[in-house]
Amino acid sequence: MPAPKTTEPPSGKPAAFHQGKLADARKPWKKKTPVEVIFEQAEKLREEIVQTEAGLIAKKRQLQKFEEARKLFESA
CA 17, CA 24: separation in Å to the nearest integer? Predict the structure, then answer.
């Protein structure tokens, strides 16, 4: 039994996109200068470093708690 055909256009985009409903919702593409690209990449890297450092601090606290627990178990 053949699969029922859909009314979606062959481009893979939803029918509403071709009707202009979603086309207005997208911002127009703006070409970035190389300087803007570098600044954006630097900002992303800075944010990634902050998140990584926060994770490292949390892991250090957890390790400290485990070390304290280890001392308690060894002294008993």
Answer: 9
